Amino acid sequence: MTPTLTTLLLLGLSVGPRTRAQAGTLPAPSLWAEPGSVVPWGSTVTIWCQGILEAHEFHLDKDGHPVPWDRQKPLEPGNKAKFSIRYVTEQYAGRYHCSCQSPTGSSEGSDPLELVVTGFHAKPTLSALPNPMVTSGGKVTLQCTSWTGFHRFVLMREGEPRPAWTLDSQRPTSGQFQALFPVGPVTPSARWTFRCHGYFNNTPQLWSYPSDPLELLVSGVSRKPSLLTQQSPVVTPGQRLTLQCRSHVGYDRFALYKEAAHDLPQHLSRQPQAGPSGADFPLGPVNSSHGGRYTCYGGHNLSSEWSAPSDPLDILVTGQLPSTPSLSVQPGPMVASGENVTLLCQSWSFVDTFLLSKEGAADPPLRLRSKYRAGHYQAKFSMNPVTSAQGGTYRCYGSYSTSPHLLSHPSDPLELQVSGSSGEPGPPATDPSSTAGPNRYLYVLIGAAGAFVLLLCLLVVLLVRRRRQGKGRKPGAADPEPQDRGLQDRCRRARRTARGGGGAGPAAGRGGWRPPRNDLCPGEPLKIKTQSGTGHFSFPPVGGIARHRSRGRQADGQSGCRM
């Protein structure tokens, strides 16, 4: 190698490092924002740039601006600078870089920081499909929807400074714009709370207001609690409603979730009480938004995992439809146990579903699809056969399948009385249409009672008549004894002969017997003619001869009567 070439190489090596330093070969600084890079309009944000210790000035650059957006001297210990924005507006939205200056030259630019300002469009809606309750290790789909035609949707997870997912919007047949974000597998080791935004492609740093937060509850396999209400699940607007979550497991906290709700499930700590642990969730006064399906969960403070869900409880709000159905019963409101009973609910106005509710029952109402017949929408609720436990007061309602938890006004109450029920019989049904059919059982009862009274009266009449006949005859005044019948026959023949011939007849000479002067034979009634008429008296025969002849003559002489 020639001396000239060696000299040039040494000169190049000594000049090279200084030239690269002056051209910006210092390490690139770090750039971040507090409290985050996604900030609401009108809020305060701080941008930090951190570089080498030798830096004596930091520059903040924004895309689209030829000169630095801001310059700041380093803070102690001298390796970072603070850029404060006290009131964020749309002019601050954009992409930023920072660099630092040192005696040896300028550093390279930092990685970009995208400052997003929210609150420029209406908020979208975030929901979980099928619901926000996910088993540990499971997956779920989060749906962000809006009627505004956003080009893209962004999903943010609470606690993370950057967007979790960004997806192009789609427009299905429902008419809303949406994006579906798959999430999972989820674990109980962290909280899973999300919000979503929408934006347009021409302003990618100007987002909508955030959606309401949606928290995924990671449920486990521990014993499920019970969800109940002291009132009926059918409630009226303005009514106070409290849902109670109870469990024999000693849970420290409880959560109440409403299906398809956009807000976070309600959380309550365990409330001191005797018996099972639990919490009361007051929901009143009731309005249409309270209608829906609810479940509750229990959990322990030392774990982020929740129990298995309770059985669902449907809350139905009445008076949300303009129609009022009518309720009737066949064969009638008073039936015998074991009979077939049909409750007919019908309405002039269109409803696609009818519900039958029993007063005081904790069970959910019965549901049937309506059918159009004879100018009415109707449904028939059959009880075949009816039991005494089904007696009670019933009402029916109408609803639409699109909003099954919002009901019409109630029908008039109808009381069904089943014979053999343990309770006292109540008043008759207040619905006049319920008495349209013949109450044959009442008629049978009345008819049987009338027949019994008539039979009793007939027996009394016969008994009285029998006693009167017995008083008119003395003992022994019955038919003549057999030994007196011959004497009675001879007396009657002699009397006929005497009347026919004027004398005693042959019979007078036999046995020295003659017919009595008063033409009275033994055993025949004595006829006494008085001024008031003729009376008949029967005297018993004495020794086969009527001894009352002398008494008759004496009576004739004393009273002026003629035999």
Description of the molecule:
The termini are far apart. The strands form 8 sheets. Strands 20, 22, 23, 25, 26, 28, 30, 31, 34, 35 and 36 form an 11-stranded mixed beta sheet that branches. The protein has 563 residues and is mostly beta strands. 14% of the residues lie in helices and 37% in strands. It contains 4 helices and 38 strands. The chain crosses the membrane at residues 441-464. Residues 408-435, 469-563 are annotated as: Disordered. It is found in: Cell membrane. Its main location: membrane. Residues 33-118, 129-219, 230-318, 330-419 form the Immunoglobulin domain.
Provide the fold topology.
Elements: H1 3-22, E1 30-34, E2 38-40, E3 45-50, E4 57-62, E5 70-72, E6 80-85, E7 94-102, E8 105-106, E9 113-118, E10 125-129, E11 133-135, E12 140-146, E13 152-157, E14 165-168, E15 177-183, E16 192-199, E17 206-207, E18 214-219, E19 226-229, E20 234-235, E21 242-247, E22 253-258, E23 266-269, E24 277-282, E25 292-299, E26 313-321, E27 326-330, E28 334-336, E29 341-347, E30 353-358, E31 366-369, E32 371-373, E33 376-383, E34 392-400, E35 403-408, E36 414-419, H2 440-471, H3 485-501, E37 526-530, E38 533-537, H4 549-559
Parallel strand pairs: 2-9, 9-17, 11-18, 20-26, 26-35, 28-36
Antiparallel strand pairs: 1-3, 3-6, 4-5, 4-7, 7-8, 7-9, 10-12, 12-15, 13-14, 13-16, 16-18, 19-21, 21-24, 22-23, 22-25, 25-26, 27-29, 29-33, 30-31, 30-34, 32-33, 34-35, 34-36, 37-38
Membrane topology: Single-pass membrane protein
Region (Disordered): 408-435, 469-563
Subcellular location: Cell membrane
